[in-house]
Amino acid sequence: MAPLSSLYEFPEWLNMLTAFLIGTGFGFALEQAGFSSSRKLAGMFYGYDATVLKVFFTAAIVALIGSQFLGFFGVLNLNQVYVNEFYVTASIVGGVIMGAGFIMGGFCPGTGICAMSIGKIDAIVFVAGGFAGAFLFTETYPMIEGLATAQYRGPVKINEVLGLSPGVFTLILVVAAVGMFWLAERAEKRFARPDITNDL
Amino acid sequence: MDIRKKVSLLLIMLSIILALLPLTANRSFSEEPSGLLAEVLGEDVSFTVDEVAEFIVREDPSVRLIDLRPEEVYRKDAIPGAINVPWAVFIESDPDAWLSNREVRTIFYSTGNSEADYALVYARGMGYDNSYIMDGGITEWVRTVLETKFSGERITARENALFETRRRAGEMYTEYGNLPDSLKVKFLESRKFSAKKLDGGCE
Fold this sequence. Notes:
Structural class of chain A: mainly alpha
CATH superfamily of chain B: Rhodanese-like domain
Structural class of chain B: alpha/beta
Strand order of the largest sheet of chain B: 1-5-4-2-3
Order of helices and strands of chain A: HHHHHHHHH
Radius of gyration of chain A: 19 Å
Strand content of chain B: 5-15%
Number of strands of chain A: 0
Distance between the termini of chain A: 47 Å
Shape of chain A: globular
Largest sheet of chain B: 5 strands, parallel
Number of helices of chain B: 10
Number of helices of chain A: 9
Number of domains of chain B: 1
Shape of chain B: elongated
Strand content of chain A: under 5%
Oligomer: heterodimer
Helix content of chain B: 55-70%
């Protein structure tokens, strides 16, 4: 009962190959959904295109429901699934930087690489900027270490903080997501921009 | 119906099923590592064997003992009333099964201190502040409680009480260990009954 690679003791090459295939599939799906277009992505902020919200939130709730069921039937040991550690300050500061970069650059890191792979010049510049940021972060880390590790809360889960069972929390999140989709579609109609298309 | 509405409906229905299922297995440590370490290294998380002996003799209902040793060892000898949850089973299952009642103090013990210490970190990390260990495990229990001897000329009242508790706990331990499994539960019940009769209180 564990994630695949530790369940079957994959050799290193098979582990890498699996990651490569999953990554390729993910990139292909992103590109097919039009996520290599910064116009579509930026539409999220202006309200004329909420595809980003709908796609990523749907992916998240499907994965959430699926993993809960797999866990319940004993196929997946959820205790062995890594839970990200929560640093409050770093999450807020990082979120603001990420959001600003997203609206300015027109991509998020994954979709940036996706767009770069189909040869978009703005995406190449975007990814280069991302690497520069990573380099800068590493070089200045001793100076910002206090900020990066402040207010550590451990690998907490929201349902545990709220004292809810994982199933009840899933239900609340799914209902909230469907509500958001409905709102997003209303916003799409209201802020519609027929002049913006997926064509270059 | 629109395909998106169908998918939304399907997801909501699946999550309603999830909300009704008893999903408690996936829990995470709720405490900061340094805080947890300081807590489990503190004095307040362990009981001495003498304190445990007193709980046994008094048959304290607010205390529960969990024996983390393998089943075959537990069958040979165990502290009366202790439940056997081998360490390997304990770490694999949801601790809520044994620790959900916060009113009851749960005391872990193993042969030495190792498994009991691991169990304590695990349980306290999960937020069960009602978990403790018996310091020194069964080894210390046998050394202190069973092999206790008084040597000297005079005995103080306090020493006498301690000695008496150890003797009674030791007696219970030996008596309990010699019983066949089928009679062990009855043994505890009968003791409770006779204790009540002796106290002569109103029920």
